[in-house]
Amino acid sequence: MLRQSTAIVAPERVRRSVFVVLVPAVLVMAAMVIAGCTSTRVERTKSPSTSDDIELVESFARVTLPDSTTDLRVHREGRGMDDAVAAEFRIGAGDLERFIADAQFTEPPERGVVAVQSYPALGWELSKFETRPDRSTFLGHEENVNGFVRQVMIDVVDPQQPVVYLLAFET
């Protein structure tokens, strides 16, 4: 008899211990999500000037996106310390010089400079620029001003619609 009652009680103990382990684990994961240990990805094919992703890129990366901005893809990491915002977008050829001037980079992006290697969250493998035979088809710049880093690559292989890769983060 004693063995039967022990066998019946043992599964209940197992259920309780699983419950005791799983509940705190679920609570910890929920707290991480609430605290911002997640990332957001927003994709747009046309970028209305009032969209939240444009506001995020402009305010965090300290740039002004021209009205000709299209195909905007944004990725944000963090919600406090060590924030990062990555953006990829196309702009009209006539807006490239204005975009660079308005961004007030410490130095203007230079032809042939690889400033951003990769950013997997947006599928960037920008090391491809290093192997381009014509290095005049891209511009790059990296700066660190008081712990705020901006890296920009501009692909001008299609001069009518340059593609901008912009990464901004705090160190």
Strand content bin: 25-35%
Tally of contiguous helical segments? 3
Oligomer: single chain
Largest sheet: 7 strands, antiparallel
- List unreliable stretches of 5+ residues: 18-50
Distance from first to last alpha carbon? 66 Å
Beta strands, count: 9
Write the layout of secondary structure elements.
Elements: H1 2-35, E1 39-43, H2 52-61, E2 70-77, E3 84-90, H3 96-103, E4 110-111, E5 118-119, E6 124-125, E7 138-145, E8 148-155, E9 163-170
Antiparallel strand pairs: 1-2, 2-3, 3-9, 4-7, 5-6, 7-8, 8-9
Structure notes:
There is one protein chain. With 171 residues, this protein is an alpha+beta fold. Helices cover 30% and strands 29% of the residues. It has helices at residues 2-35, 52-61, 96-103; strands at residues 39-43, 70-77, 84-90, 110-111, 118-119, 124-125, 138-145, 148-155, 163-170. The strands form 2 sheets. It has a 7-stranded antiparallel sheet with strand order 1-2-3-9-8-7-4, covered by helices on one side. A two-stranded antiparallel sheet has the order 5-6. Mean pLDDT is 78; it is low at 18-50.
